[in-house]
Each structure stands twice: as structure tokens, then as C-alpha cells.
Design goal:
Elements (H helix, E strand, L loop, with lengths): L7 E3 L1 H7 L4 H15 L7 E3 L7 E8 L2 E11 L2 E10 L9 H18 L2
Parallel strand pairs: 1-5
Antiparallel strand pairs: 2-3, 3-4, 4-5
């Protein structure tokens, strides 16, 4: 990592789910996270609305599934991966409310722990 690259932290539960993603999906996500850690934005990442600035969602389509990884660009000098999931909904591109609620809870806990 270069000196301008932020370290990447993982919420343990997100890492565990992510490790079960297909290898092709993980490779694309890793590339997007590397770009983000260097201060850029990959073409497969977009802001996740309603959660404050800096919360981003990486979306990867693979075969018939949609895979998502949600990260926050910076808390305490790191990029943090908050959530990883396989999107099951076959209708629409919107992130399900249950997933948004989980991200919101993890983000709140992380901020509370790191920004005391």
C-alpha cells in the first residue's frame, strides 16, 4: 500500500459473508476497495442514500445473482467494510430495507466505538 492509501477495516460478520462470495466477485470487490482506499471511486460503486456522506455500495452481478458490499470511506483514518450480502430480490435494484437497517446499526456501533 502506498502512503496515500488508507487501511481497510472489516466488520467481522461482513468479512465472514464476503469470504463465501464467488472468487470472481471477490476479485472485482477487492479492486473497487483498493480504488476507494486510494481515494477514488470504482465504476461499480455508488453512494448509498440515506446513511450520510461517505457510505458507498459496491454492486457486482455474477451469473444470475447480485452481490453487494457496503463500506464507509473513512472513520478513524480507515475505510471500513460494514456489510456484504447476496441480494435476493428479483424485482428492482433498490437495496432491501432489512439490509439498510443492518448497515445503519453497524455504522452507529462502529462510530460509537472508534470516535469516543
Amino acid at each position: 500500500m502506498g502512503k496515500d492509501t488508507r487501511p481497510v477495516g472489516w466488520i467481522r460478520a461482513a468479512r465472514k459473508v464476503y469470504e463465501g462470495f464467488p472468487e470472481t466477485v471477490r476479485e472485482r470487490v477487492n479492486t473497487a476497495l483498493t480504488i476507494a482506499a486510494k481515494g477514488g471511486k470504482a465504476d461499480i460503486a455508488k453512494p448509498l442514500r440515506g446513511l450520510g456522506s461517505g457510505v458507498m455500495e459496491i454492486a457486482v452481478r455474477h451469473r444470475t445473482d447480485a452481490w453487494r458490499v457496503v463500506y464507509v470511506t473513512e472513520i478513524a483514518g480507515r475505510l471500513w467494510v460494514l456489510h456484504a450480502f447476496r441480494k435476493k430480490s428479483k424485482t428492482g435494484v433498490q437495496t432491501p430495507k432489512t439490509e439498510i437497517d443492518l448497515v445503519r446499526a453497524r455504522l452507529g456501533r462502529l462510530r460509537k466505538e472508534l470516535l469516543r
